[in-house]
Fold:
Amino acid sequence: MGSRVALWSTVVVVLAVALSGGCSSTDYSCSNGECEVSLSGDGATTEVDDNVEVVLVGADDDSADLSVAGRSVTCAEGQSVDVSGIGVTCDAVGDGEIELTLELVPR
Structure:
């Protein structure tokens, strides 16, 4: 009986994690004031260049909602926006993921 309870407890925990959508991933690389950033999964967060936090709030195939350095921004694939002096280009936007370029050097 104890092994059945343990098995069902494990199944419940695995299902709860899977249904919560808790999977996210981040990756970035910087060179000469320009950073390539990839975020996957709503809520994915990374800190670029030790002081610029980038959060993927949500994305679909048309646009992404982000927070960059504490400022909310929405951008579509190929669109460039300025966020408090940081150049943000949304290179690729997909369902729950985004690839973007940050220009941290003043333009």
